[in-house]
């Protein structure tokens, strides 16, 4: 399966705020982001997180995207929408000591996120040769680990830029942080 992963546009939230499952609107225009991504994408079904920052991009990419709650970002429980500085060093250190299983904030652990995302993507893969997912950075990291075989030492620290695409094919991450843009005149878009 060829799995195209799209990270949503930058959300409207102040720097330094912990957010995951919170339903934040996009700060960047989803239609403009979609226009930069379309040249990279196949004519394939689009699956998306239902959160508005993903939903609006999915709707700009495809006339009939499908939404699945399992593609939502992680739930950070009591940490949601709090400044990181207010969460406290001890809590963040406890999370860092066991990032896969920590759920001391009352939300989800990364292992719980991984379980639901992998189940969803495996269902999609069983029905489609290729698909586009419009999702969140946490979901993209989990997909890189599960479907591209990246070890925890790599995927925990991996980053995906807002409004960019990644491709997982044949069990490897082929490329990431791609967009297509016009650089001169009205010629064909160039990849970067």
Structural class: alpha/beta
Provide the succession of SSEs.
EEHEHEEHHHEHHEEEE
**What is the name of the CATH superfamily?**
Phosphoglycerate mutase-like
Q: For this entry, what is the oligomeric state of its chains?
A: single chain
Tally of individual helices: 7
CATH architecture: 3-Layer(aba) Sandwich
Low-confidence stretches: 183-188
Based on CA atoms alone, the radius of gyration comes out at 17 Å
Q: What is the general shape?
A: globular
Mean pLDDT: 93
Proportion in β-strands: 15-25%
CATH names the topology as Rossmann fold
Number of domains: 1
Whole-Å distance between the termini?
Answer: 23 Å
Q: Please estimate the helix content.
A: 25-40%
Strand segment count: 10
- Biggest sheet details: 6 strands, mixed
| CATH hierarchy class name | Alpha Beta
Lateral arrangement of strands in the main beta sheet: 4-3-6-1-7-8
Structure characterization notes:
With 192 residues, the protein is of the alpha/beta class. It has a single domain (2-191), classed as Phosphoglycerate mutase-like (Rossmann fold), CATH 3.40.50.1240. 34% of the residues lie in helices and 19% in strands. The protein contains 7 helices and 10 strands. It has helices at residues 30-37, 52-61, 84-87, 89-97, 110-127, 137-148, 152-155; strands at 2-7, 17-18, 46-48, 66-67, 82-83, 130-135, 165-169, 172-178, 180-181, 190-191. The strands form 3 sheets. The chain has a 6-stranded mixed sheet. Strands 2-5 form a two-stranded antiparallel ribbon. Strand 7 and strand 8 (172-178) form a beta hairpin. Helix 1 (30-37) crosses helix 2 (52-61). The radius of gyration is 17 Å and the shape is globular.
């Amino acid at each position: 399966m060829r799995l195209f992963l799209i990270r949503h546009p930058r959300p409207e939230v102040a720097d330094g705020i912990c957010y995951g499952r919170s339903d934040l609107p996009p700060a960047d225009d989803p239609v403009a982001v979609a226009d930069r991504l379309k040249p990279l994408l196949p004519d394939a079904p689009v699956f998306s997180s239902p959160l508005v920052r993903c939903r609006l991009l999915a709707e700009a990419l495809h006339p009939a995207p499908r939404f699945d709650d399992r593609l939502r970002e992680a739930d950070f429980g009591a940490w949601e929408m709090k400044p990181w500085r207010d969460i406290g060093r001890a809590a963040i250190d406890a999370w860092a000591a066991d990032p896969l299983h920590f759920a001391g904030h009352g939300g989800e652990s990364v292992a719980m996120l991984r379980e639901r995302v992998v189940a969803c993507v495996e269902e999609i893969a069983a029905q489609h040769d290729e698909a586009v997912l419009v999702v969140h950075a946490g979901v993209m990291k989990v997909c890189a680990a599960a479907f591209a075989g990246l070890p925890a030492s790599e995927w925990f620290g991996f980053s995906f830029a807002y409004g960019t695409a990644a491709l997982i094919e044949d069990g490897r991450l082929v490329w990431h942080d791609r967009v297509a843009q016009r650089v001169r005149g009205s010629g064909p878009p160039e990849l970067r």
